[in-house]
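Entry for the shared binder. Reason: the reviewer on the internal report wants the predicted structure included alongside the sequence.
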Amino acid sequence: MDDTQERPPPVQIPAPVGGFVSREAAFDLMDRTWRRRVDRPPVVVLTGIGGVGKTTVAVRWLSDRRDRFPGGLLYTRLTEAGGDPVPVSEILFGFLVAIGVPADTIPPRSAERSAVFRAAIAGRFVGILLDDAVSAGQVRALLPATASAMVVVTSRRQLSGLAMDGAELLDLPPLTPDDARRLLGEVVGPERIDAEPDATGTIIEICGGLPLALGIIGARLRARPLRSMAREASAYARHLGAGSGAPDDVREVQAVFDTSYAALPDGAARLYRTCGLHPGPDVSLDALTDVLGESFAHVEDAVDTLVSENLLADAADDRVAQHDLLRRDARLRAERELEPADQAAVVRGFTRWYLNRAQAADDLIHPQRPRLGVTPPGRHRTAFSDRAAAVAWWRRDLRSIRAVVTEADRRNWDEELWQFCEASWGFFLHHRDYEPWVAMHTAGVAAAERCDVPLVEARLRSQLGFAYAKLRRFDEAVTQNSIALRLGEQHAHGPTQATALSQLGRAVRGQGDLFAALGYYRRAARLQEDLGIPRGVALCRRRCGEVLAKLGRDDEAIVELTAAAKTMAELGDPIQHVRATTAVARLRSRQGRRDEARLVLLDALRVIRDLDSPYYTAEVLEILADVESDAGHSEDGRRHRAEARELRVRLGDPQAGEPATDHAGTAAGERGERGAGADSR
């Protein structure tokens, strides 16, 4: 072997690509693994979806640290062009020849070649890149037995079985938007990036952080220096998923997904397509089980297959998510392989699943209000263990819920659309997000009109009018509730009329006409009393009390507010009980009874925090801040006011940016007065 030892060490790895942004986490892991080697070969497995840059990272790391491996750098692909695994025996033959073993001395059997390979590199400092591995068993047969040989494995599959061999596993994520921008800038030049920031953002979004896609677009742009970024973004988006009609370089990205999809069993392929039709960013296994009509175990097995292939990613709370490009690929495959009616059935299945869940959640979040939409019987009715679980579901799934509602609107599924609007009321009261809620309700009102359900239309108009009043669009609030009142009168429906009257009171109060507001509230209270709805009477009395307080008629206000608080306590409505008692506490503080007011407010704050209601928590904090400040506790007042402002900013509340002072009746106090008029029916 003396002659072979005089040969230069083999360097088989590809040349590093240009345009590379650092992958610190991957580099740090490989450095740590190399430093910690003891009595076994250090092994790092880089996994991730196709095009995420696994091979690029491995090649760059080995190239940058070539001096650590004077024995050479070995490289092989473990997958044939068609997706089949390369025979291990063939790979070993190539490695042995590369390190100088004469071809005619290499044994024919794979196991014997493995033994010769391990013996030949024992003690040599060698870097080995096993690219695009198919299975843990395939890699295991190629592992050396010496700690001086560093092995880096790349695979679209997770290969978790290699952890038993001491391997470190890292799922390589797509690039962040900032890193994607840097990579694109390195390829096309920063001046083009800076000249068209919006188009650059579109390209980054289309590419989903995949270096392969970014590199292809960058190369196309560099080859055509006069082509605008915006035009390239449009062309690339049009070609993605176009199949054989797409340019060769664009098909390179598609080929990555084609290879993975072709190897899927039928159940996993169906699940992949179904995820692509889901409107939102992630989806629960429960929803998939319901829509597919299969057992949870069957769906879970298909999910495991897709996760192991890096075509799906685990998310919190029994959810799964797809990378944006994978979701687009899955959707396009569903559109090609399924009839339009079958596609619509899947999307409608998701829509109804979310609607049923939203209604079940609303039953717990706001149990006091009867719903006009009927929830179908089924397990969704017991989907949540308690109110906290229902609120957590709304928070967690809000993006998906909105995406489903948008899809229902696009497809003219009017029945589902207006029912979503109605079921969103309870969550909205505690977590205000006005802009998307107003947009949804505007569509919902139109859907109710088309469905010819006038009482539903009236309810949604009153809900929309409520939001307009909170946004200080008082004229629009009056318009919506005037229509709602007319509909209620036409159909002789007292609850609808009472709600519209109360909301009209809110709107004219915002316009500054306190006497007109008081009149509307009292009319609504009388109607609620005639209908035998004590909670409705109490709500109106609370609002009357707030207006009387604004008019300086404090004794009358306290009578109304105290009566409202008593009724709400008897009915078991903690939110409205708190709101009435805090309004009384404000008046007690104004009368000089600040210690009494402070104790009431601190207790109210405890109750409202337990209910996980950010909006009403901010409301109580603002009143408490005024009372603390008036009592000379300026620091406590500032602390409470700062927390309230933070909550409102987080909620996107339009009142969040208003100036605050330390005295009731000025800016902060007036804001609290207006906020105290919120309707929760």
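Summary line for the report: The CA atoms of residues 586 and 597 lie 7 Å apart.
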